[in-house]
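Appendix C reproduces, verbatim, an entry submitted by the partner laboratory led by Prof. M.T., so that reviewers can inspect both the input and the predicted structure.
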Amino acid sequence: MPSAMNAAAQRVQAAFRKGTAIPSFNIPYHAMMAPVIRALRDTRTVGMIAVARLEWTKFEAGSPEAIRDLYGTLRDPRLTLLHLDHCPVIDEDLCRVDFMEVLTRAVKAGYDSVMVDASRLDLAGNIAATRQVVAMAHEAGVPVEGELGAVLGHEAGPLPPYEELFASGRGFTDAEEAARFVAETGADWLSVAVGNVHGAITAARREAKVAARLDLDQLTRLRAAAGIPLVLHGGTGIRREYLQEAIRRGIAKVNIATAIRQPYEALRQSDPEGAGEAVYRSAIEQLETELGVAGNAALLPATC
């Protein structure tokens, strides 16, 4: 099987080696894409435009192809990459998904990287599903992100009290399982659970997100066990010092959704132009202040 070493794979691997990260911005509404790309360009930052399955089933992204088409008119080949985010095997409503159909469509549509989320299966099932995606995507030179552990937040109903969740380590990624997962799947990147949570996508999605923290010692163990770039989902709301230390400890890709979606949704009906500016300002804040990765293009391989 050929190695998946396209520009996305090379750049995430370089970020992993150099202690920086590539931000991945989820786009549930088409009008959010242009201000995010403008923020990446203005800060000289390599970043991903991402769409997850739930963003065309529960929001207004349309489809993987619709996002691909819009991206084709706005992309900056020096700085931007296109990522197919969370394609679950079992979705947030606990329904089975034809994940291979979705992910094969994304690879054929020209996405630079894809993610399969089989974390609601047992370990053996997760490995089997992820390995199937890796075999397909690597044939096209496309890197694959898998997930191990449970990054909570997309399920129906409220989360348990966060401090109780954190203290129990419920759903946290296990280091021994991570080593086995990487060895048996051939995945390029691993999404981990170390205290991070997703933003709500239900009626509660306009509420302030829980202030999460991260188990940095567990993250260090996961980096040693997995040996591949790690991914942090639920990047909004985590205290800055945790985020930036996590990047130094092996997080090479950080997903950002709530931080740009909430200000957009607050203004999209009453002030569409202002909504776009709110997305731009929030993206700049994430790049420069929260993540501290602005200007990462100087550290990463060039592409065209």
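The longest helix spans residues 272-290. Additional entries are available on request from the coordinating office.
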